[in-house]
Amino acid sequence: MGKCILIVDDSPVIRRTLRQTLEREDAWEVCGEAADGREAIEKAQRLKPDLVVLDLSMPVMNGLEAARELTRIYPSLPLVMFTNFDTPGLTNEALSVGVRAVVPKSEIKGLVGEIQALLEPVL
């Protein structure tokens, strides 16, 4: 079984695209999806993913709020923010709440690279 990734985005189209992209990697498996931050926390507690990909702008609980809570519960869980709102201010705030990397949605290859760096560190 590969590394388990939880995808969190309020867009079903983005979730489907991410699932298809990430599951091309033999070492990875998308073990769950969530449409908002609250659902992400519930699924993370149940699924125990190896990494979470979080959108920023979502209903109920946004990505920063979810990251803050996920980091509190699972301090070593890698979180990657995949967002349309890529600014230096957002990146600083995301890093301060436990996100390891912020990747613009226009750079899906960059997302794959960040996930590889977090899940498959070079020894």
Give the gist of this structure.
By secondary structure, this protein is α/β, with parallel strands linked by helices. Helices cover 44% and strands 21% of the residues.
If you had to describe this structure to a student in words, what would you say it looks like?
- The chain has a five-stranded parallel beta sheet with strand order 2-1-3-4-5, sandwiched between helices.
- The longest helix is centred in the last third of the chain and has 12 residues, at 108-119.
- It is built from five helices and five strands, in the order βαβαβαβαβα.
- The chain is globular, with a radius of gyration of 13 Å.
- The protein is 44% helix and 21% strand.
- α2 (37-47) packs parallel to α3.
- It is an alpha/beta fold and 123 residues long.
- The protein has helices at 12-22, 37-47, 63-73, 88-96, 108-119; strands at 3-8, 28-34, 51-54, 79-83, 101-104.
Topology:
Elements: E1 3-8, H1 12-22, E2 28-34, H2 37-47, E3 51-54, H3 63-73, E4 79-83, H4 88-96, E5 101-104, H5 108-119
Helix pairs in contact: 2-3
Index terms:
single chain; 123 residues; alpha/beta; five-stranded parallel sheet; 5 helices
Strand order of the largest sheet: 2-1-3-4-5
Number of strands: 5
Distance between the termini: 21 Å
Q: What is the mean predicted local confidence, pLDDT?
A: 92
- Give the helices and strands as they follow along the chain: EHEHEHEHEH
Q: Which term fits the overall shape?
A: globular
Helix content: 40-55%
Specify the structural class: alpha/beta
Give the DSSP E fraction (strand runs of 2 or more residues).
Answer: 15-25%
